[in-house]
Amino acid sequence: MSEKLKVGILGGTGMVGQRFISLLENHPWFEVTLVAASQRSAGKSYEEAVGNRWKMDSPMPEAVKKLIVKNVNDVEEVASLVDFVFSAVDMTKEEIKAIEEKYAKTETPVVSNNSAHRWTKDVPMVVPEINPEHFEIIEAQKKRLGTKKGFIAVKPNCSIQSYAPALTALMEFKPKVVVATTYQAISGAGKTFKDWPEMEGNIIPYIAGEEEKSEQEPLKLWGKVENGEIKKADGPLITTQCIRVPVLDGHTAAVFVSFEKKPTKEEIIDRWVNFKGLPQELNLPSAPKQFIQYLEEDNRPQVVLDRDFERGMGVSMGRLREDTVYDYKFVGLSHNTVRGAAGGAILCAELLKAQGYIAKK
């Protein structure tokens, strides 16, 4: 019998679910043994349920093709067959909240890509290099849910990965005002150009809910665990604009920042390239060796050249220079469905396993 943990993917037929499945192929710790989706897909083989909607560059892994898709609403049955689940379900926010809690109450850890529980006060929202200590809130959450092993952990919005790590590395200089405009790929909406042809050659200056997430979620990452809940940080003040652009994968951010203690350009680059966290110390399977790279060329980072840095798990910075209104400006880039979605959740699960929160049932 395999020593790997048995993993279920909730919402496994959608784009993020597919990314989970492709990234988990041959994972050293985790094995996808179950896929759950809507009633429409239930009872079909995974290959049949996805049909011509496979959206990854790599082929569908052979190991999942013949898995019979379960109904995601058959919570007890699904939970009985796996050690933990990744959640990428496509439902309303209230439905997601309810179903993720149902899974947690079956003593099944839930690592979610969804936004529904990001502001639940005792649910950790974690980028493992930034705020791994927030996982300690899980004990308070278990008390609320009445569980011994079951809990929910989430990862933050995909777009903030292109600038929140860069700002975290500079916290000693006390950033006070941040202006960020994100240029977001269509895969962030679960689309390809094949099913969203009107995005070719087009820009849409609005993504529902995205600006509030981009301004507020970094403050939760930088917050503190107090009295059984996570209190968000008071600052810096962040304002954003979020724009959908005709790019398949890779979110870019143009960032302006002022500090209480203005660093030199050399100090900023030094802090970026040397920034490490617990995933690097523990050498977790999905952890990038280098989390942040700095590119000196004026025309970098570029989506096509740089989104796959460190297998899509690293972030790339460039064009750092002093500004006439703020202290500095720079450009960041992250892979939105790898580091920003499925890959970021997998790294969370690896850290949760390393810390003993996730184990065989």
Automatic annotation (TrEMBL):
It comes from the Bacteria. Pfam families: Semialdhyde_dh, Semialdhyde_dhC. Belongs to the aspartate-semialdehyde dehydrogenase family. PANTHER family: ASPARTATE-SEMIALDEHYDE DEHYDROGENASE (PTHR46718:SF1). Keywords: NADP, Oxidoreductase. It comes from Velocimicrobium porci. SUPFAM superfamilies: Glyceraldehyde-3-phosphate dehydrogenase-like, C-terminal domain, NAD(P)-binding Rossmann-fold domains. GO terms for biological process: methionine biosynthetic process; threonine biosynthetic process. Its EC number is 1.2.1.11. NCBIfam families: asd_EA, PRK08664.1. The active site is at C158, H251. One of its GO terms (molecular function) is protein dimerization activity. This is Aspartate-semialdehyde dehydrogenase. Residues 6-138 form the Semialdehyde dehydrogenase NAD-binding domain.
